[in-house]
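Box 3.1. Reading complex inputs
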Amino acid sequence: MSWDTVIGLEIHVQLATKTKIFSGASTAYGAEPNTQACAIDLAMPGTLPVLNKQAVNYAIMFGLAIDAEIGQVSAFERKNYFYPDLPKGYQTTQLEKPIVGRGNVEIQLADGSSKIVRIHHAHLEEDAGKSLHEGNFNSSFSGIDLNRAGTPLIEIVSEPDMSNAEEAIAFAKKIHSIVTSIGICDGEMSQGSMRFDVNVSVKPSGSDTLGTRTETKNLNSFKFMEEAIKREVARQIDVIEDGGTIAQETRLYNGETKVARSMRSKEEANDYRYFPCPDLLPVVVSDEQVEELRRNLPELPDARQARFVEQYELSEYDAGILSSDAAMANYFETATSACKNPKLAANWTMGELSARLNSQDLSIGNSPVSAEQLAGLIVRIADNSISGKMAKEVFEAIWDGEGSADEIIEARGLKQVSDSGALEQMVVDVLTANQAMVDDYINTDEAKRKKKLGGFMGKIMQASKGQANPQQVNQILAQKLNELL
Amino acid sequence: MHNLTIAELVKVLQSKEFTSVELTQHFLDRIGSLDSAYNAVITVTAEQALKAAAAADQRLAAGNAPDLCGVPILHKDIFCTDGVRTSCGSKMLDNFIPPYNATVVENFEQAGAVVLGKTNMDEFAMGSSNETSFYGPVKNPWATDSVPGGSSGGSAAAVAARLAPGATATDTGGSIRQPAALCGVSGIKPTYGRVSRWGMIAFASSLDQGGPMARTAEDCALLLNCMASYDDKDSTCIDREVPDYTATLNSSVKGLRIGVPKEYFSEGLHPGTEKAVRSALADLEAQGAELVEISLPNSALSVPAYYVIAPAEASANLSCFDGSRYGYRCEDPADLQDMYCRSRAEGFGEEVQRRILIGTYCLSAGYYDAYYGKAQQVRQLIQQDFVSAFENVDLIMGPTCPSPAFKAGSKGDDPVAMYLEDIYTIATNLAGLPGMSIPCGMVEDKPVGLQIIGNYFDEARILNAAHQYQQTSDWHTQAPEGIA
């Protein structure tokens, strides 16, 4: 029997506001625990929330980016449950009247096709704090860090329009690309700036009836999300094929241990007792406000891709990769404008730089090699000052903080010798010193002579300590050997 | 000294007839010697008060001091006071010392008023008799076997017993007006959004409103001038200029149209109360006001709607008291669940727990529409009743509560009887309108309150009518036996 998979996503996106959604405390990541939680975040008695207008604007910008309806009047509700990292005992969120209504997101798939994923809505809410169950705490205590409590989020809820992990990942990456492109989220997945809840169900191929779904919560990387979906699909099919039924439940997937487990069943689910938050007025969005935000909306990833093809003559594929991540696109453009060589800038950004960043789990925003430094390197490659091999060495040195490309080339004496007089002398010296090889070359059939060139090249490069311009040496060598024939 | 009104104290302080330190010491002495009989004050802040009084005297000496500079007051223990325990009448917050001031507290501090201490109240402002306080019941100075009303019973009793010339209070369903009526003092609940709720511990956020209590309408006007302000820390506070409420006190009531709702004079109203209220209305008519019988047809629905909405909001507002960050935590919790359950079961009193349970129930899946949803619809109807009424009248008047102060302990076992105590006051909270209670007679040697309800932001008109009534009556000047 074959099965269809149905996937819907809920994506929590931390908004890049300086302060929290209902207080003036900083949202900066990585501070000492509980140093960025004010009386409001701690839910001290008598404190009251005041809505951060920038968070509202960011939510509207997201709505505009996905061509969604913007709620002219949206409202906040209280979602009630007890947990130590939720100081008020309720989360202030939106239920009945979210700020962003229905919209659409187009995703591109590996086979070149594209697909529309519908957005059901996106709403504003506050993040909770963090419970720390390990580290300095013994088994009977947990630590609570409320720095994150009150960080503004939009929760983006998709329709169940995805039918495999590839589509789900493409969708998640597209959302990442959109929110970073319009600058409403820093996109730092490792810091929890985007978290995914994945709803998965399976049904017999072609069936109109949806199967029972499970929700796997709080995935914070595309890789974990892909694994979690594939495992969950396989698990559900196994259960059903073994004659069992799928329980509606919330699940957790541990990306480190690759273990998925049930967190709570439908029966154990909370009754959140939502009701309108009486401390906050409805959010009224004017047409002028929306138009102002629309006018100033930064370039979206699809438009940027098209522009990269047009302006920099990149391939659709390269332009697509570069524009999928706003930070990468900005890096590429900064490098290009400094080195005037889009092709090399694209290759180096997507190639060497991305590989190194990935291997060290760094985002491009934290790259040790700045776009200006990379441009400096590219300029020296393009003007033949250094060879491709030297370029890699210089790149490593820039990465290690040794300075600019020119400084490193100078310090290490890596400058390629392109002076034809000096090169000619070098070739002549090597030929003179290796008469046996020259004789061998002359006596070899014309058809096979070409293979012998490598031996001379090696000797010459060795003699020049790798600094001879290989293209020029090749030319001069061929000419000199020809003269001997 | 203690029989002077705030208006009179302002004059003697500004003319330096006596100092704020003298005045403050006098009231501190009164609290020390008399309050054991009433239990109106939970915390006395003598040291801070005398320091503030000395500072006020310096400001007064320098000239140009604000009206309230050097005037001693008491704050209801629901307003957070920086560095001073703010208990909200609960064991839950018996150990809670806020590191910030409520905006109301801040406003009085800026004006140079002297805070004598914090007044007793029903726990988390839930009650109409001041019997639910963790710090014990408050006694009515007019009859110590009777209740002072609630939840601002401590503030009302303190003003009645001349322990302070004025006090702050809050009103969610009648908690300023009902105790003011039962203790024979004046108290006004302003329009919702007129006084900042920042630092005022929430009971039911959409209904809570702070306001002043004093012996006269004029004093209430002076206090409200300071208490009312726009505050960007409270999103429901309304950005609207605060008028000088004393400026219009002396306007004539000639031609004032007073609506008298027939629903406020129906079954359940004590005949003595009715007589006193009708007599007060006649006095105003004699001054040239016009009495117009009106109807507020949905009045009967106000108590049931209120006892869905207020507990629903309270059930969430009180979730922050979980034993983890401040306030009471049970001994040796076995685990998280145990800590939550026992901290809340041991830290909250019976009435608070009852309302949390009612509110939780009303918001539960399957009940929300029938209770909370319906109650919100009723709230709209009640508001509409008032909007229609105010098309034809300037003010609405009637009794503040159905009968004079009842005996302590007499309604403790019957929550519904207790809830009906607020039958005439709750509707104004649901509508967000301003309302006031002033003394208008005595029944069984206990005070009776006249309630005056105004249109939105019409506090000045309410205070004007109250002041004019007090120019021709002396109920507000009477003192309980042994007080004056």
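In summary: Chain A touches chain B through 28 residues (CB under 8 Å).
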